[in-house]
Give the backbone structure.
Amino acid sequence: MGAAHALGLTGTKYGCGVAACGACTVQINGESVRSCQVALSDVEGEVTTIEGLGTPGDMAILQKAWVSHQVA
């Protein structure tokens, strides 16, 4: 089991590894980035995964779109 899964962060996925698919997209200081292309040592500031965008009772627009399109 990976560290993200152990923390309950199961939304962001490893995909292609070359920043083409977007499965690993997170926000760093409010800017969307493909995390597979950013070294952790280069990150300064706040990292937000899809789980951090809203709450189960008040989902963010992106979360609602993922649900409606049945994104894995």
User: Anything to note?
Assistant: Residues 19 and 34 are 6 Å apart (CA to CA).
